[in-house]
Structures are given as C-alpha cells and as structure tokens.
Design brief:
The complex is a heterodimer. Chain A is α+β, with helices and mostly antiparallel strands. Chain A has one domain (4-21, 55-143): Hotdog Thioesterase (Thiol Ester Dehydrase, Chain A, Roll), CATH 3.10.129.10. Chain A has four helices and six strands, in the order βααααβββββ. The chains are: A alpha+beta, B alpha+beta. The A-B interface holds A 18, 24, 27-28, 30-34, 48, 57-59, 61-63, 65-66, 69-70, 73-76, 78-85, 137, 140 and B 27-28, 30-34, 36, 38-39, 48-50, 54, 56-58, 61-62, 65-66, 82, 85-93, 95-96, 139.
Amino acid sequence: MIKFADVAKGDVLPAQTFPIRRVDLVKYAGASGDFNPIHWNERFAQSVGLPDVIAHGMFTMAEAIRVVTDWCGDPGMIVEYQVRFTKPVVVPDGVAEDSGARLTVTGKVSAVNEDGTVRVDLTAMSGPEGAEKVLGLARAVVRLP
Amino acid sequence: MALDPGFAGRTYPPTAVYEVGREKIREFADAIGDPNPVYRDPAVAQDLGHRDVLAPPTFPIAITWPAALVIIDDPELGLDFSRVLHAEQRFVYARPIYADDQLTATVVIEDVSERMGQGFLSTRTDLVTVDGEHVVSGYSKLVVVGAGQEAQS
C-alpha cells in the first residue's frame, strides 16, 4: 500500500480505460435509482437535443475515482472528491463487444499537504478520438498512512 | 419561472432511515464494474481496519439524489425537472459508508442565483447515522435551463 512518505508532487498514477456500453448504463440506472431516459432511450435523448444516449455523469464520476482507489489501496482513505460535468459521454448502441464508449482516466499528484493528505487531479477523456475532456476540476483528497 | 433567491438557506426535514446493507453495496459496485473485494468481502475490509464492507466513494449519491428530489418537488420553488442539469458534484467524507449504517439525509439549499436566463442551485445533503454521527456530505450544483424565461408551451 502507498505511504504518504513515498508520494511526491507530480507523481503520475497508473491510467485506466473503462469501456461504457448501453448495458452498463442500464445496470447503473437500476443500482443508483436514476432512470432519466436520456441514459437509456435514444429517441428521448435526441428529442431533447442530445446526439445520442449519454452516460450518467455520476457513472463517469464513479469510474474516474477508481484510478485513485486502485492506486491507494483503500477507498476509505478518500476524504474529498469533486468533479464538474463539462461534456456528456455519448454511448452509441451496438452489438459488437467493443461497442459503446471508452473513458480514459489519468491522475497526477498535484499537492502534498502538511496535514498528511495528498491531492490528486484527474483527467477523464472520451469521444470518438478520445480527445474530449468530459470532466473538469476533477480532484480527490486522500489521507495516506 | 424565475428562481427566488429567498430559498437559499431552506432546510428540509430529514428523510426516513436508509438501511445500507451489504447486498446494496455489492449491487452498486457491480453496476460501476469495480471488482474491488473491499466492497464485497467483510474479511478484506476488516484487514484494512474497517468494521464492515464499505461503499464506493460515489455510493452516497444513491441516497442523496433521491433525497434531493424534495427540492424538485417543492411546489413553492416550482422547478421543472426536465430542465434541471447536474453540473457539479462534490463529496466530503468524515468516514466511508459501511454496510451496517442506518442513515438519514437532510437536504439544504445553500445558494440560489440566476444569470443570463439560467438558474443555479447549490445544494448540500448531509448523511448522518441514527446515532447522530456525520458520515458524508454531498454538494450538488444544478443548472436550471431557461429558468429566467416563461416556459414555452
């Protein structure tokens, strides 16, 4: 497990890529209780001006923090976590295994604080070329042993 | 429907008790595709010093979001849910949520404003155990599209 003494500002966390398929949004809707049809009904999504079904922002937020929890080893060490939903993650339908969207999350230690916590800044990218930044001001504060 | 800044500070009564439970945590961890055993196996959680399996960091939204619907449903505020967008989310944790927690949610409207025809609502939802221990607070920023205009029928 990572120790506070071993962490320095600028350290890069192992990046991860998460596939997001329609079925993942259906499962998330059920588990979270957010059944807004923009997350599962293409017709409805387009009727409100979206290009297609989009992922729940909270689903994207849930994926992004995995880069931090897998790195620090104990999700109970997270003391603060925030994101801004800047762009929707569009999730096309499809039958292929690799259909849907991909979310790539990178993290970097942006501050080592005197109170024994570190701040990690996260970047979450999606879109056809993986070039769209879908979260803004995404950061977590972690208390390390 | 204009948003009334006078609603800032409004606090709603605590919700009914939410009993967390190991299976709800497992279902949520499955839904976000996170295989971490700390969300499923009490022995793994206890090895890390926790008293029971813990919930993933964004699990509180499954309690705070339904609780915050009290704002959407407040007839005095008169929000149109189909025009409400989730713009920002932040959690501040005193400790993780555990499977054996019994929690109530108290929703507070922290700020209400309007700029360029859009309404902005900042809310805070405190999750507190039935014994009064504060566990986590969720802060949401919501945008109400077209809040400054009359609804087009």
